[in-house]
């Protein structure tokens, strides 16, 4: 059976295993280390905590059991859903001719199309609505400075346009004065060939 101390240790191991605190293998490992430390007389007075392994418990997620809410039991079945024929009888479509039914469906389809097209048109037109400007917020001095800036810009643009026109006029020199025409070159070739 062993000593009373041994029985206490076994009881602790079993209880920890049942409570899922520590696996018995780790307890047995600790007991083996303690037995080896007890043999050494120099360590008899010291604390053995630094020699014992610290096993950290890892939290493993456990699956939660599926608990479905039970509906209240009723001995009577639910009311029967109306069939397509019943719905037609209520609305009066059942007694309509096929032409009238198709005309009604066509009319409903056209109504839906017109609603959707109007909605799309509104969305498209919303993109073209200009944002509101705060013209009342500008002071007279700001307006005058804006007018001055616009006048300066127009003057500078007119000067640049004038320079551009002058430079184009200089570039548009007649090319014919620099390039010999085909007739002149042919006549010169004939003269050279006849003189040879």
UniProtKB/TrEMBL annotation:
InterPro entries to which the protein is assigned, alphabetical: KH_dom_type_1_sf, KRR1-like_KH2, rRNA_assembly_KRR1
Bias type Basic and acidic residues, positions: 98-120, 165-174
The KRR1 small subunit processome component second KH domain extends over 1-39
Composition-biased stretches (Polar residues)? 136-148
The record's GO molecular-function terms, alphabetically, read: RNA binding
Cited Pfam families: KH_KRR1_2nd
State a GO cellular component annotated for this protein. Answer: small-subunit processome
Q: Enumerate composition-biased segments (Basic residues).
A: 55-65, 187-196
Q: Where is this region: Disordered?
A: 54-84, 98-196
Q: Which PANTHER family match?
A: HIV-1 REV BINDING PROTEIN 2, 3 (PTHR12581), KRR1 SMALL SUBUNIT PROCESSOME COMPONENT HOMOLOG (PTHR12581:SF0)
Q: What is this protein called?
A: KRR1 small subunit processome component second KH domain-containing protein
- The species this protein was found in: Aegilops tauschii subsp. strangulata (Goatgrass)
